[in-house]
Write a structure and sequence with these properties.
The protein has 253 residues and is α/β, with parallel strands linked by helices. The chain has a single domain, classed as TIM Barrel (Alpha-Beta Barrel), CATH 3.20.20.70. The protein starts with 5 loop residues before the first strand and ends with a helix. The structure holds 1,3-dihydroxyacetonephosphate. 1,3-dihydroxyacetonephosphate binds next to β8.
Length: 253
């Protein structure tokens, strides 16, 4: 693996200031696992506070508007996120696609704007169970990516892909390691075609969907799995750190 494993906690619509102690505990413990890159994406309301607590981990956001500042009530743009301390943004999460009707074209515009604003991007993709059962998971996911990948010369350090099968999110059900390996290999081929193999090698492909301390080691040891995007299990320092430890052990193995 070209880069350190990347373990990112997506707090989704969870967390008040009472959660700052969990963020602090995650940050302090992450300092003992320097072979792993650890990051948290709290809700907007906590970004600045978590940033102030953090000495080691990266802080990011869960979405941003594609435009610059202006008349967009309720929205937040990339420069505001940077100002609050965010270094990256998760874009194209299936919950945004489903709850807010986000299209690949909109997601592409958000990515270009976030990169322009100096943020790193985690681009999410993933199929529904119906699509998988129809045997169309690979073509669907690659279609999402083809329509939303940014047109940049050098995606290294700036772009991460997260494969999150929708049926595995928050369900306790994970994809089989074989399914993950096959999908990640297809995504890697697309990245190679798009950016050239040498440049694309530094783009990590994360897996997301019911990752827990108990299953993390197996998933993180699989080829082309560059880390995990973690929802529920990132809400407590104890379970999130169990995944960080598993990533560190998988790296040593
Ligand atoms: P869970 O880990 O709760 O399944 O969520 C995964 C996810 O959607 C992370 O972005």
């Amino acid at each position: 693996m070209a880069e350190r494993p990347y373990i990112v906690g997506n707090w989704k619509m969870n967390g008040t200031r009472a959660m700052l102690s969990e963020a602090r505990a995650i940050d302090r413990a992450a300092q003992r696992y320097m072979k792993v890159e650890v990051a948290l994406a709290p809700p907007y309301t906590l970004i600045h506070a978590v940033h102030r607590e953090a000495e080691q981990i990266g802080i990011g956001a869960q979405d941003c508007h594609p435009g610059e500042e202006g008349a967009h009530t309720g929205d937040i743009c990339a420069t505001m996120l940077s100002d609050a301390g965010a270094k990256f943004v998760i874009l194209g999460h299936s919950e945004r696609r489903q709850d807010h009707g986000e299209s690949n074209e909109l997601i592409n515009a958000k990515i270009e704007s976030a990169l322009e604003g100096g943020l790193r991007v985690i681009l999410c993709c993933g199929e529904t169970l119906d699509t998988r059962d129809a045997g169309e998971a690979e073509s669907f996911v690659l279609g999402q990516l083809k329509a939303s990948l940014p047109s940049i010369e050098d995606p290294a350090e700036r772009l991460t892909i997260a494969y999150e099968p929708i049926w595995a999110i928050g369900t306790g059900r994970t994809a089989t390691v074989d399914d993950v390996v096959a999908m990640h290999a297809s995504i890697r081929r697309l990245l190679d075609e798009t950016y050239g193999a040498e440049t694309s090698a530094a783009v990590r492909i994360l897996y997301g969907g019911s990752v827990k301390p108990e299953n993390a080691r197996e998933i993180l040891s699989a080829p082309e799995v560059g880390g995990a995007l973690v929802g529920g299990a990132s809400l407590s320092a104890e379970s999130f750190l169990g995944i960080v430890v598993a990533a560190s052990e998988a790296e040593d193995a």
